[in-house]
Amino acid sequence: MPELPEVETIARGLDKRVRGDVIESVWLGKHREPLKSSAPEIAAVLRGARISQVRRVGKHIVFDLESKSSRNGRGQRQWIVHLGMTGQMLVTSPEAELQKHTHAIASLSSGRELRFVDARRFGRLSVTNEQGFAGPGTEPLTVTADDFAKLFHGRKTSIKAALLNQKLLHGVGNIYADESLFRAGIRPRRQAGRLTRVELDRLHASLKEVLKEAIKLGGSSVSDYVDAEGRAGFFQLQHRVYLRTGQPCLVCKTPIKRLVLGGRGTHYCPQCQS
Ligand SMILES: [Zn+2]
Asked: What's the pTM value of the predicted model, to 2 decimals?
């Protein structure tokens, strides 16, 4: 599943390529699951709208739209895309072969198409007229150390589970939770509410560091993630613990261990993390 750095990479790529373009027409497939708003509603908001910006909010891709229709007044509408497990948002030429599992196509005035492809159909498309879709949870790249520490106050769950809780922090998934706990030297099983302020400050810093490095490298390519231009990311080459079970720790050579926390495979070094 794409996490914050992958969605950020995809959103930046899309912004670069389709900002300013106008959606001329919309085709939506027959499967209902990917449509969180109704098909007529999505089509009505998208048709004729100018894409003023594409950005990431949590794990969502948000297209800010300017509608031509005066009936909507000057209201900003938004097209919200959640990629789910396998969703891809591609910019293609109309001649490009139509991939199986294409659920939506927006034809742009530049002559290109935006296509939403999703084999497993956990991705979601919706439209909103909310002023500034925020999504749940706090943004990990901008949260202050104080606010970060407060999120975990009194929490009895493991710190790993708390990091994955999208109501606390949005966009952090399994890879970046494991990698940031490793860099902070904290065992994933530790109770979140019992971490010291010094440990939380370390975790705050390492989480930001890991996310920023991953964004710089275009995200981690596991499963079938690709960015808006169909390119893979490279952060998976920097993983120090994630999916390295049994391999020597890059710092101390102790074999990396794996356990299951909250149903998710969790990777850590028993020597470097305490
Ligand atoms: Zn180690």
From this structure: 0.79
Q: Examine residue 256 and state whether it is found in any structural domain, yes or no.
A: yes
Cβ atoms of 199 and 148 within 8 Å: the answer is no
Q: Write out pLDDT tens, residues 102-138.
A: 999 999 999 999 999 998 888 999 998 766 677 778 9
- 199-230 as b/e, with b when 16 or more CB fall inside 10 Å? bbbbbbebbbebbeebbebbbbbbeebbbbee
Edge to edge, the sheet with strand 50-57 lists 50-57, 60-66, 76-82, 124-128
pLDDT(70) > 60: no
* Contact between 255 and 272 (Cβ < 8 Å): no
The CATH number of residue 82's host domain is: 3.20.190.10
* Catalytic choice (5, 6, 56, 59): 59
59 is catalytic: yes
> Residue 254: which CATH number?
1.10.8.50
Identify whether the C-beta of residue 73 lies closer than 8 Å to the C-beta of residue 40.
Answer: no
Number of domains composing the chain = 2
- 242 Cα to the center of ligand 1, angstroms: 13
Closest CA to 51 of 129, 104, 109, 6: 109
- Please give the distance, rounded to the nearest whole angstrom, from the Cα atom of residue 181 to the centre of ligand 1: 12
Claim to verify: residue 195 and residue 261 sit in the same structural domain: yes
Catalytic (active site) residue 264 = yes
116 with 198, same domain: the answer is no
160 as an active site residue: the answer is no
pLDDT for residue 238 is more than 70: yes
Which domain does 244 fall in, by range?
A: 145-268
